[in-house]
Amino acid sequence: MSTPSRKLDHLLIARDREVEALRLNWLPQIHIPHEALPEMDLDQVNLETDFLGRTVAAPLIIEGMTGGHEAAERINRALASVAEEFRVAIGVGSQRAALEHPELIGTYRVGREEAPDVPLIANIGATHITGERGLRNVQEVASMIEADAVAIHLNALQEVVQPEGDPTYAGVLAALRDLAREAGVPIVVKETGTGISGETARAIERAGAYAIDVGGAGGTHWAIVEGLRYPQDHILAPSPFRFTTWGIPTPVSVAEVSSLTSRVKVIGSGGVRSGVDAAKVIALGAHMAGAALPFLRAFYRGGRDSLRDAMERFISELRWALFLAGCRTPAELRLRGRAVVTGEPLQWLQQRLGPGWQVYKPGMKSPRWLVGWG
Ligand SMILES: Cc1cc2nc3c(=O)[nH]c(=O)nc-3n(C[C@H](O)[C@H](O)[C@H](O)COP(=O)(O)O)c2cc1C
């Protein structure tokens, strides 16, 4: 099946079917202590954040989803114009289709046309950055849309469970190292719904990435999306569904990555469904929060108007959450390490980062500490 029609399948399945790994959504087990005395007014909350050399009005990213066909062009146009209106960052979907079919470039370029003043992130899969064409692919997808950065997406799970997948990951880390030196554009390494561990984040940071988008488990899950696409008479048809509990849940991925890195900007995404969820990933160490599915579904519900409403809700909720936490800025929320982690995520982090692990200790300035990494 060609790339454009596979991508259309993905959009329609994401629109119509239950594609989220809800059992892996651990955000309800993360809490931000209520501040009964915020000692400021709501309008003193300032969500402005620096990202990729620009200032966004709120630390939010519309995560990369689409491009490559007519329907995608309409979606990218609406997503980008809402990103521009609210001054938030935006990514486009994998640009492989446009590398293979240059007549599709316009379906991605609408991103820059509609959003000239916000961080715009190009997108290409890890399997396309290795080999002779790797560097050129990355430079082409960046210049195609005048991007501020290129996201290299990691989707090993999707590549194995997809009938036409290409699970060839040998050499990706070395290619990332070369790209960070030679591509001439900041590199964002992003997962797509199964998360990134602290150790892997550390290797990615050493390779020279600008940002790591954890793309954790708890939202859109590719074992489900690809499972629903599988030919039903195929002997492996049930197999993708065995992996629907596979993945590092978003809050623990954010906590691991921000604990084990020191320079990269961390982006918390995967199952982020509200401004409250966004505040939680920031409290765990993220610089920005991102979401894909809620914005796609808002578009399908009512076009640009619904999308606009969804973004307004996200930003208002994030502002309220900061006020109720007594924090004037996202950086204050992040650097205070305010999150309280309970239940399964706490068990996970204690097992992975050591029993002394905790998000907040009095006097601690930054959550980027590490207690007893084993
Ligand atoms: C329909 C659809 C298509 C996607 N296509 C891409 C893609 O081309 N490249 C990419 O890096 N991520 C892609 N993603 C993954 C998202 O960017 C995001 O990492 C993931 O969906 C988790 O976020 P969510 O739970 O908010 O949806 C896609 C997601 C959806 C729903």
Which short descriptors sum up this protein?
374 residues; alpha/beta; TIM Barrel; 43% helix; disordered C terminus; binds flavin mononucleotide
User: Could you list the spans in which at least 5 consecutive residues all have pLDDT below 50?
Assistant: 365-374
- The CATH superfamily label reads Aldolase class I
Number of strands: 12
Strand order of the largest sheet: 4-5-6-7-8-9-10-11
Question: Which hetero compounds are present in the coordinates?
Answer: flavin mononucleotide
Residue-averaged pLDDT: 94
Give the helix/strand layout.
Blueprint: H1 3-16, E1 30-31, E2 49-51, E3 54-56, E4 60-62, H2 70-86, E5 89-91, H3 96-100, H4 106-114, E6 120-125, H5 134-144, E7 149-154, H6 156-161, H7 172-182, E8 187-191, H8 198-207, E9 211-213, H9 222-229, H10 250-260, E10 265-269, H11 275-283, E11 288-291, H12 293-324, H13 330-335, E12 340-341, H14 343-353
Parallel strand pairs: 4-5, 4-11, 5-6, 6-7, 7-8, 8-9, 9-10, 10-11
Antiparallel strand pairs: 1-12, 2-3
Bound molecules: flavin mononucleotide.
Please give a quick description of this structure.
43% of the residues lie in helices and 12% in strands.
